[in-house]
Amino acid sequence: MTHDTDNIFVVVSEPRTGSTVLTHKLELLDNVSCQGEIFHPDEIFSSAKEDSIPNREERDANPIDFLHKIIKETYKQRGQSKTIGFKLFFDHNPTITNYVLNKKIPIIFLERRNKLAQYSSLKIAKKTGKWNSDDVLTKEQEELNKKRGKKVRFSLIEFIAYSIRSRFRFFNLINKAKKSSTPYYYTTYEKMFDTEEWGKIISFLKIETPSLEVNSTYEKQNKGSIFSRFSNPSYAFFCCKLIQLLPLAPGYLYLTPDMFQKT
Fold first, then answer.
1. Phi, psi of 253 (to 5 degrees)
2. Domain extents in the chain
3. Most Cβ neighbours (<10 Å): which of 37, 55, 61, 182?
């Protein structure tokens, strides 16, 4: 089964990078539908009716056919949509990643440059079970969160390994996109609410819209000093200060001076 993929795009990202916010902002545009993590290992995050698309086992057996069916059902159920996107994380489905490159489907790469923020946010989400601000937790999870709190432990080795892996993933796939002549646009979590950057994203996707300004409600989940997220903040602060002394490391991990300001 095949289907026209001329007006398809994919947001390639990682957890805790603002990909949900970006797809929600795109979803607010006329003629645009943006699916979620339809290739998530444990669940299909799609707005398409569950009984209209293959289940996980069928998806994993034939991911390309599944993608075409998602596209077809999105057009059918949301007929006003001319452009359809979906989210894809690096470890979701290599078959689909290769398919995107082979078919030269436009890619928006969304990276969070501040790896300390991403690292801490991911650990907090795993601990609390709250991945999005509107997630409803079970009573058991809420009780656990009250008992254990949100703070997580900083590990220097874990942080460096996590950051290098993240940067390499983007570097590697962007290089593959260049070699295959796949159109792509690279943006960052830090620029996502900039009007000029938003205009560039819309222009890249060739979306016709009467306004560049899209008001999307967004509540930051982890507020305050970034070091206050850790149960060992002094150690985290000291390690990051040491990293700042290494050649190229501050820029590579996006450790900016304002992070060390007392708030």
1. -100, 5
2. 8-260
3. 37
Give the span between the Cα atoms of 90 and 70, in whole angstroms. 20
Quote the tokens at residue 103.
């078919």
Q: Helix, strand, coil: what percent of the chain each, to 5?
A: 50, 10, 40
Q: Tell me the H-state helices in 82-218.
A: 94-102, 115-128, 139-148, 156-179, 195-204
Q: What is the pTM of this model?
A: 0.88
Alpha helices of the chain — where are they, by DSSP H? 19-27, 56-61, 63-77, 94-102, 115-128, 139-148, 156-179, 195-204, 233-244, 249-253
The Cα–Cα gap between 100 and 255 comes to: 33
Structure tokens at 47: 């707005």
Q: Tell me which residue has tokens 């996590």.
A: 162
Query: Per-residue pLDDT tens for 81-139?
Result: 788 999 999 999 999 999 999 999 999 999 999 999 999 999 999 999 887 766 777 88
Tokens, residue 12 = 């390639």
